Amino acid sequence: MSFDLDAFLPYRLSVLATEISRRFAAHYAAQAGLSIPEWRVLAHLSQSGEVSVRDITRRVNLDKSVVSRAASRLQREGLVGKSDHGGDRRLIVLWLTPSGRALMERLAGTAEAFQSELRARLGEDAPAFERGLARLLAGDGEGTR
After folding, report:
1. Total structural domains in the chain?
2. In the predicted model, what is the mean pLDDT of the chain?
3. Angle at CA 28, nearest 5°, toward 26 and 29?
């Protein structure tokens, strides 16, 4: 029996995730000049409010240095605020500025339209796909998320 990489589910999911991320990135890059890490930081902040770089790193699945660079650029652009955490000066806390909130409100429509396109491509399989994806993301406590 030979191993078929193209039939290996983890490989296919990885390729698909990269492709979907790349396609969506083209939308928000064209509209706002954002990179993938910058989008992920903004999207997380729009859902969470004020949070530490460490918390964002865990949530968006990026290295701390990548999140820190993205946050620094977003701060220079006036989209996020940044300060030391009061209780632990090693932690950096981020939040959306009014400009950052306005941008995320504008990009939310783009995100919703992109998601609708994906669901339309899945057709009647969309609910089953989303249930299966939720099960895989829930993991089993053995190294999966």
Report:
1. 1
2. 90
3. 60
